Structures are given as structure tokens and as C-alpha cells.
Amino acid sequence: MAGENPYIEKPVYKPAKKKFRVRFANLDKTIVVDPDKIPFGQTGLPGSILDIALSNGVEIDHACGGVCACSTCHIWVQDGLDSCSEATDDELDMLDLAADVQTHSRLACQCVPSGEKDLVVEVPSWNRNLVKEGH
After folding, report:
1. Could you give the dihedral angle defined by the CA atoms of residues 62, 66, 69 and 72, in that order, rounded to the nearest 10 degrees?
2. Distance set, CA 115 to CA 17, 18, 32, 38, 125 (Å)
3. With CB atoms counted within 10 Å of each terminal CB, which end of the chain scores lower, N or C?
4. Which of 3-7, 9-13, 95-99, 124-128 has the lowest mean pLDDT?
5. Is 6 inside any structural domain?
6. The pLDDT of residue 134
7. Does residue 61 form part of some domain?
8. Interatomic CA distance for residues 51 and 46, integer angstroms
9. Closest C-alpha among 64, 62, 53, 65 to residue 26
């Protein structure tokens, strides 16, 4: 499943205009994001952390296909959160279902960086898809 969720408020976000980095701290992986290549795939909002991660080999569980209908893509944005889109009420409702929610928790499918700052992201160990089916 991919695309938009017609049952939630459409998120407002500012797409990136310049290159920036996303460092997945606990995975020892840094991605340089080129905004000219966004969207990378069809999962999550265009340019979301989920879109960026999946297109660069970082597997994050996303049971709903990235349409803000579950909480499986829960991540922690350790640095640069203030340069990301604001969480909608729908995203916050989904985060209420997630484990170990922190003040810097977001759903990777809904969190769109503006590119104004580099990001440091942590993918909780229980949210990493270590075996991708279909390969």
C-alpha cells in the first residue's frame, strides 16, 4: 500500500531546496539527500524520512505503507527536528500507540525535513526490518 490516506488531514510541509544529510546514528549510516531526486519511492510523504531511508537501504518497518495509519515507522529525531514538518493531530494519535514515545518521536512516513539542517535519526531496534520479504 502506498499513497495518501484520505481519512486524515493532509500534512503541510516545506520540501527541501538544497542538499542535506541524514545520519542514522545507531546504524552507522549517513545519507546525502538530493532534493532534485525527491520523491525517491512511493512510501510515505515525498521526501519523508521513510522515503529517504527506504531508497537508501535503511529498512524501517511500515505496516500501513507509509500513510499514517499505524505506528510501526516510529523513529527518534535526535538532532534537526526543528527543521522538519510539524506533526499533525493524526500523526500524534498514531504515536500514542507506539512504544517508548519520547519528546523527539516522529513517524518516519510523516516527518519531512526542510533541508535547512542536517538530521540525526535513531531507528529503535524493534523497528528495524532485518528480513525484507520478497527478495
Report:
1. 20
2. 7, 6, 11, 12, 26
3. C
4. 124-128
5. no
6. 45
7. yes
8. 7
9. 53
Q: Cα–Cα distance between 52 and 32 in angstroms, integer?
A: 9
Q: Which residues contact 123 (CB under 8 A, 6 or more apart)?
A: 24, 26, 27, 53, 58, 60, 75, 108
14 forms beta bridges with none
**pLDDT tens by residue, 100-130:** 999 999 999 999 999 999 999 999 876 655 4
Q: Determine the pLDDT at residue 1.
A: 44
Looking up residue 64, the CATH number of its domain turns out to be 3.10.20.30
pTM: 0.90
Q: Where in the sequence is the domain holding 108, given as residue range(s)? A: 20-127
88 sits in the region (left: phi over 0; alpha: psi -120 to 50; else beta) called beta
